[in-house]
Amino acid sequence: MKTKVLLMFAVISFLSFTQSVNAQKGIRIGYIDMEYILENVPDYNEASAELESKVQKWKVEIEAELKEVDEMRKDLNNERVLLTKELIEEREEDILYKEKEILEYQQKRFGPNGDLFLQKKRLVQPVQDQVFVAVQEIAKNKRYDFVFDKSADLVMLYSADRYDISDQVLLRINRASKRKQLNSKREKKSLERAEKRTAAQEKEVTDREKATLQRQSEREKLLAERKAERDSIRAAKRKEFEERRAKLLELQKKKKDSIEALKTQKDKLKQEDDQSNNGDNN
Questions:
Q1: Long-range contacts: 197-203, Cβ < 8 Å, 24+?
Q2: What is the model's pTM?
Q3: Cys-Cys with 134: which of 17, 27, 111, 169 at CB 3.0–4.6 Å?
Q4: Alpha carbon of residue 136 to chain centroid
């Protein structure tokens, strides 16, 4: 908050100073609106639409995983009375592990250094480079002393439309795009290959980012190994439980059959005694 106040104070002071000096030295000031420019660059809009499609796909995947966790928790609550304490703890551990996996996936896609942030950065970078070149040319030709970005953190308290050079920047970008379209097929293919991974994008993949990706890969491998080990142990325990359960059911069945046999034998003996007694009476 303190930084923003100081920044605003600096902007006000600078504008006040330039306004007073402008009349004396004829200083020319212009500005652009980067958001307006991005909205009117076709290539950026197409790439942005593709990225939005990916984002929606990621969200659907996360929602499906969350729904699966809810089903696991619901099933556990319904079967809790039928399970041993050990099995309940295992099922709860499965749910916690699944929730952790979902959280890690959310961070991977939407975190501060996630795929969405990196791809947006790579998406904007080529347009920013074109804007920078266009601004340099316009400022040189039109003799502007300062050019600001209206959409940046540097807040503009007032901006007259006559100082807005955004359309001039767009015009130069569109002209450059048309010139590229007039190139030979060989040059077009070369450009397409270059656009897949520009030099600017290559520079973004720093050693630090590579180390982060390496650690992430190792962590995912370790988690997969732990999960496989837990699944193996859990399968063995479940098999043991099912065997104990089958033996218990078998013993219960034998006990029940024995009781039924004794009951049948008792009824048979009673019937024979009754018949014998009836014969003696006759």
A1: 198/125, 198/126, 200/122, 200/125, 200/126, 200/129, 201/122, 201/125
A2: 0.48
A3: 169
A4: 37
